[in-house]
Design brief:
Oligomer: single chain
Structural class: alpha+beta
Strand order of the largest sheet: 4-3-2-1-5
Distance between the termini: 48 Å
Order of helices and strands: EEEHHEHHHEHEHHEEEHEEEHHHEEHHHH
Shape: globular
CATH class of the largest domain: Mainly Alpha
Number of strands: 14
Length: 462
């Protein structure tokens, strides 16, 4: 936790427009020791979803939510999710700090910077929450939506993006001049929120919508870093295809380029057809709300997610058994496609007519294609690799999958069905990897070798 010192408590307001029109949800306070939130009385009468699944208005009511600040969470988890993580190579954080610098605001590192970033990037971001410095700023922002217009990507924009993506463009001035202080989403891969024609990518972009925008589609646009992750966009597109073929809901996507920079535009599932925000929350935010021991988006296990789904007094997933089967499928598919990065921020929940369910699949990229990310799973499952019960050898992959299935309450036949189907749907995966045009041969060969070995081991599970 970082001390605020003798400064006055910081205050902000939280609004939402998930009903189609903006309403004030409540007030946020940050003191030297804790973060607090209180719902507006008028909001409580609306019977709308609130700050987070476990902070439901009907449960909290008029009480003030109080959470002690820690070194991992200065804010309540749903609010913390709106702040791009600290790190010199975080594109989103650099972009907002560059915008602040142009306005003459240069906050100290740490909490002061996070607070200033939250006031700029905390509205219009992924999800249903909009954070503002005060109500006047909120009303002004909602009253002045950008024109629903599209701009042709120019050579100047392409050049600035190239500079920005190589971390050389310190002020990102050209990018900001063209697209404004657009909100962003977290993560190390450069990505920003934009809109494109609803007919698909045609090299025209616009600002994200703030309401009905006929003939426009809101997207997350990811820019490929050719040096660190060559071919990653095409690889993610393949993984999205595999998950769609496996029966998962998958957002529409478009592969293209911006003046030579490969881009992947993915339709936002946190907006409905009227461009109204949909309640979404990551499992990281949900579980960290209820468990103070969670400190990172990977400091949990798949087994523990199953336990949380089962035992939470409030529905994390309304159809609990189906949710656990879906979780099992996601993990097995990740193993079979070389994605060891299925962590708590890559699993989210949305509310659909009051039912809590997993969102469409996102970020399923087979990261094991890149040596720096070559781990079978960023989170543990089924005691994999553990030395338990005074055994001479660690728990292997076959046994760990069986252990996880049992922990999730799946019958042996249900577990076998999940594994058999996953093997079937990924049968041509390595061949499709070999046919990718932009993934280097070294990465192709590494991924194919890894996946083939995992497939052979998983086949022993059935």
């Amino acid at each position: 936790m970082q001390s605020i010192g003798n400064q006055r408590d910081r205050q902000a307001v939280v609004w939402t427009r998930q009903s189609g029109k903006p309403v004030k949800m409540g007030r946020l306070y940050l003191t030297e020791s804790d973060c607090r939130f209180t719902y507006e009385l008028d909001y409580l009468s609306l019977q709308q979803p609130g700050l987070g699944l476990l902070y439901a208005p009907e449960i909290v009511q008029e009480s003030t939510i109080i959470r002690p600040r820690t070194e991992f969470f200065d804010f309540l988890p749903p609010i913390q999710s709106l702040v791009p993580p600290k790190g010199e190579h975080n594109f989103q954080r650099k972009l907002v700090l560059a915008y602040l610098a142009k306005k003459g605001i240069q906050p100290n590192n740490g909490l002061e910077a996070d607070w200033e970033i939250l006031k700029i990037a905390g509205h219009g971001a992924i999800g249903h929450l909009d954070v503002f410095e005060n109500d006047d700023k909120a009303l002004q922002w909602y009253a002045t939506p950008p024109a629903a217009e599209l701009f042709q990507v120019t050579e100047d924009l392409g050049f600035s993006l190239k500079e920005t993506l190589s971390w050389l463009d310190q002020d990102a001035s050209e990018l900001i001049n063209i697209i404004g202080p657009t909100p962003s989403v977290g993560g190390a891969i450069p990505k920003i929120l934009l809109s494109i024609p609803d007919t698909g990518w045609d090299n025209r972009i616009g600002l994200p919508s703030r309401g009905p925008a006929p003939q426009m589609t809101d997207v997350v646009v990811k820019f490929e870093q050719n040096t660190a992750y060559p071919g990653i966009n095409e690889l993610e597109a393949l993984a999205l295809d595999i998950h769609k073929e496996a029966g998962f809901e998958v957002p529409n996507y478009w592969l293209s380029d911006m003046r030579g920079i490969p881009v992947l535009a993915v339709e936002r599932f946190d907006r409905n057809t009227a461009n109204t925000p949909v309640f979404t929350e990551t499992l990281y935010s949900i579980l960290a709300t209820g468990d103070a021991d969670i400190t990172h988006h990977y400091s949990y296990s798949y087994d523990a997610i199953g336990t949380a789904i089962d035992k939470s007094p409030m529905d994390i997933i309304s159809q609990r058994k189906q949710g656990k089967i879906q979780l099992m499928k996601r993990l097995v598919l990740s193993l079979l496609t070389g994605n060891g990065d299925l962590h708590l921020e890559n699993l989210s929940v949305k509310l659909n007519q009051g039912e809590a369910e997993f969102t469409p699949v996102y970020d399923p990229t087979p990261m094991r294609a890149y040596a720096i990310h070559n781990m079978i799973s960023v989170m543990p499952f089924g005691d994999y690799g553990e030395m338990i019960n005074n055994r001479d050898e660690p728990v292997g992959l076959t046994e760990s999958i069986q252990n996880l299935a049992k922990h999730l309450g799946l019958t042996p036949s249900e577990a076998t069905e999940v594994i058999h189907f996953s093997l079937q749907v990924t049968e041509s995966f390595t061949e499709r990897v070999s046919n990718l045009k932009t993934l280097p041969e070294l990465n192709k060969n590494n991924l194919i070798d890894i996946v083939n070995k995992v497939r052979a081991r998983i086949k022993q599970s059935i």
